[in-house]
Inverse folding.
């Protein structure tokens, strides 16, 4: 039922434990374990207490209205997340505190205080208004990791326009699909961004995407690299600096209903078409605020750095909204961890005296491979808390991170959540939880998680099953944009009134959760979710390809790598040149993150009698494992031939 279930056995034998250091525990934001029982007794009161710490123009009439699968939180409340992330802090000494610390890959840097951020957001919000953007409109943001990205998000939230951030690594086709799905009115991009010393041609990609995006009326362009001055289209394109010039430095925040649309973020789905995940204002704000405060133990003097890209949900919740709602100082970095050398992350930690670092297991495994000499070059003594996000972290990587980056003094909070959940749902509370390397530990207070079998029965300790969430939580997705039927089918159809995460998990005798990864056909490459169907569609788009099937193969550094099984059209030979052409074709259609590591050419794909491709067996071939049950195949000889040809390559 759950792939990789065998690999968890060693994890469940993990006997190393790491209780909170006494010094850390004494000053932690939350150190009373009874909080779990209180939240369990009255989850609505638990979440309402966090909501009361934030600003509301009008308080809610009802904490939760739950009509499965639709939830409304803080019903009747009026608020604005931009006001809570920026304006609220101007009423205290935080007005002159660093809100955003940014470093570009070439080494340039800027610091924005909360007062600076307020001015920048208001001016850009007024600029958007001058372009005709109003409450309820959608704005696509396709930017590198520059300050204008969070500023644009906050400006949209301020005036009630929903933003849709598209990862800067995506191609023109991927950008077009997402823009058209939400019918965005304005596109915000840049002339380029820096990555490993090269310029990423964002403006060219944006221009290419607009051939077939009729809803876009204006394009706002950030001048970052100086590489696209000749690409500005008269009457459509406007430079960011020209748009904000002379705009008023104040802009009244729109009073948003708690359930008004805040943003749409697209995530890969098993049908190929990306899903526009809908997050609304009040509940998302409360979830991001609460989890950032307790899980990262945010203090007034912390310098907090989440290394994710804002094009993914981690950047939304834990670079922008969660930290800023807490009045924290949040760090952004534009480029690669290995430019100009492999110690760039540690140089940034030292330069800005970062106290909290939140990064991905993929990065940690890469740092392990590079060796300890790089972090040893730098003073990392300011760090007091480490975090992990994006996929399960193996115990040895956890311990390496704890020892070599945290100096053996920093708790490591491994976090489980999804684009759909909006905020972290399973994680340690670092002032309370005794940590186990490789385990995300326990659900956050107020989260009712369980592991079920196929029949919907709890599996009990030590057995694998499907991770589900049984009760609503504030930051949960509200819908799939424009596709409520898919929303119900994808997340709420397997078990009655229960959110299906599509992740496998086990729980040990101590109640600790161990995540096993996806149980659907989504591949997680370096913590980025890639749909098998999306890659297959890109391959079949090539004129040489008749059919394709993609699976995820375990990869030491990435977590998973994309592997494609391709049937070529008659007369086309599976040469290295064709293989390279197909890999590049996927890059052009989707982006470099989806490039297949391996392409296996096959005359036929293994299918059931009903025509379903048996990806489970393709995984067996790619991983070099013994073949599983082949009795349902229309022609078992197909997979045997694949096994014979490719199965011994490991």
């Amino acid at each position: 039922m759950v792939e990789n279930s065998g690999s968890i056995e060693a994890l469940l034998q993990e006997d190393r434990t790491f209780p909170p250091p006494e010094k850390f525990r004494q000053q932690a934001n939350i150190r009373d374990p009874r909080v779990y029982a209180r939240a369990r007794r009255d989850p609505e009161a638990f979440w309402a207490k966090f909501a009361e710490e934030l600003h509301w123009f009008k308080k809610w009439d009802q904490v939760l209205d739950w009509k499965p699968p639709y939830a409304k939180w803080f019903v009747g409340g009026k608020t604005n997340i931009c006001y809570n992330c920026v304006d609220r802090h101007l009423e205290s000494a935080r007005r002159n505190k660093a809100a955003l610390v940014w470093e570009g890959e070439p080494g340039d840097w800027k610091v924005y205080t909360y007062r600076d951020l307020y001015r920048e957001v208001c001016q850009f919000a007024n600029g958007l208004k001058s372009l005709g953007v109003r409450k309820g409109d959608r704005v696509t943001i396709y930017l590198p990791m520059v300050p204008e990205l969070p500023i644009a998000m906050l400006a949209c939230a301020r005036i009630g326009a929903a933003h849709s951030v598209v990862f800067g690594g995506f191609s023109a086709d991927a950008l077009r699909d997402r823009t058209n799905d939400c019918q965005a009115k304005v596109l915000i991009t840049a002339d380029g961004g820096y990555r490993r010393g090269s310029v990423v041609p964002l403006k060219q990609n944006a221009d290419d995407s607009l051939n077939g995006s009729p809803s876009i009326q204006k394009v706002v362009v950030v001048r970052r690299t100086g590489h696209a001055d000749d690409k500005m289209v008269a009457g459509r394109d406007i430079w960011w600096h020209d748009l904000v010039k002379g705009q008023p430095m104040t802009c009244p925040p729109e009073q948003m209903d708690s359930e008004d649309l805040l943003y749409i973020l697209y995530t890969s789905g098993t049908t190929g078409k990306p899903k526009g995940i809908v997050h609304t204002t009040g509940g998302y704000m409360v979830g991001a605020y609460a989890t950032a405060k307790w899980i990262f133990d945010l203090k007034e003097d912390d310098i907090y750095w989440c290394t994710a890209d804002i094009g993914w949900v981690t950047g939304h919740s834990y670079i922008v909204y969660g930290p800023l709602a807490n009045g924290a100082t949040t760090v952004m970095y534009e480029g690669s961890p290995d430019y100009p050398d492999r110690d760039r992350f540690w140089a940034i930690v030292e330069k800005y005296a970062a106290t909290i670092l939140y990064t991905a297991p993929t990065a940690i495994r890469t740092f392990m491979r590079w060796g300890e000499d790089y972090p040893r070059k730098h003073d990392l003594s300011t760090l007091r808390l480490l975090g992990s996000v994006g996929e399960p972290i193996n115990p040895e990587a956890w311990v390496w991170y704890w020892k070599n980056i945290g100096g053996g003094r920093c708790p490591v909070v491994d976090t489980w959540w999804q684009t759909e959940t909006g905020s972290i749902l399973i994680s340690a509370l670092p002032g309370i939880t005794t940590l186990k390397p490789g385990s995300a530990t326990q659900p956050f207070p107020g989260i009712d998680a369980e592991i079920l079998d196929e029949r919907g029965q709890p599996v009990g300790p030590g057995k694998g099953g499907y991770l589900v969430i049984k009760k609503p939580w504030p930051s949960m997705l509200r819908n799939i944009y424009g596709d409520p039927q898919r929303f119900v089918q994808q997340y709420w159809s397997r078990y009655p009134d229960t959110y299906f995460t599509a992740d496998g998990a086990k729980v040990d005798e101590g109640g600790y959760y161990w995540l096993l990864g996806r149980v659907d056909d989504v591949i997680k490459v370096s913590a980025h979710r890639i749909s098998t169907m999306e890659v297959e569609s890109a391959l079949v788009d090539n004129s040489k390809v008749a059919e394709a099937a993609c699976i995820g193969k375990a990869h030491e550094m990435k977590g998973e790598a994309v592997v494609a099984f391709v049937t070529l059209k008659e007369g086309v030979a599976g040469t290295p040149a064709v293989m390279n052409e197909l890999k590049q074709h996927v890059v052009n259609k989707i982006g470099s993150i989806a490039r297949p590591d391996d392409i296996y050419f096959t005359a036929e794909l293994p299918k059931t009698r009903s025509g379903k491709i048996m990806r489970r067996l393709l995984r067996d071939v790619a991983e070099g494992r013994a073949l599983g049950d082949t009795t349902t195949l229309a022609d078992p000889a197909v997979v045997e031939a694949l096994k014979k040809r490719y199965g011994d390559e490991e």
In short: The radius of gyration is 24 Å. The mean pLDDT is 92. The chain has 21 helices and 30 strands. The first helix runs from residue 8 to 12.
